[in-house]
């Protein structure tokens, strides 16, 4: 009985992971963000790129549920605002 429960959990987890990894809303959300060049052009060019909401210059890139994703969002470390998109 325990084995069946664990297998059901693993199957449901795999389905959910697949659904969130390949669902179109994540792609549309990523495409709605500007590129880094567009962000700099829109919010002014300084020596360091700063957040348009809080002015922080600290950023981190976020790949969603899969850390190995090539499409990544760059977020402000302080206020967690999505600033621009990158693709590796």
Question: Helix amount, in percent?
Answer: 40-55%
Q: Trace the largest sheet across and list its strands.
A: 1-2-3
Helical segment count: 3
SS-based class = alpha+beta
Strand content: 15-25%
Largest sheet: 3 strands, antiparallel
- From the alpha carbons, calculate the radius of gyration and give it in angstroms: 18 Å
**Straight-line distance between termini:** 44 Å
Report the count of strand segments: 3
Q: What's the domain count?
A: 1
Overall form: elongated
User: What is the averaged pLDDT score?
Assistant: 84
Q: Runs with pLDDT <50, length 5+?
A: none
Topology order in helix (H) and strand (E) letters: HHHEEE
Your description of this structure?
It is a single chain. The protein is an alpha+beta fold. It has one domain. It has 3 helices and 3 strands, in the order αααβββ. It has helices at residues 2-22, 24-32, 36-43; strands spanning 59-62, 71-76, 82-87. It has a 3-stranded antiparallel beta sheet. A hairpin with an 8-residue loop joins β1 and β2 (71-76). The longest helix is centred in the first third of the chain and has 21 residues, at 2-22. The radius of gyration is 18 Å and the shape is elongated. The model has no long low-confidence stretch (mean pLDDT 84).
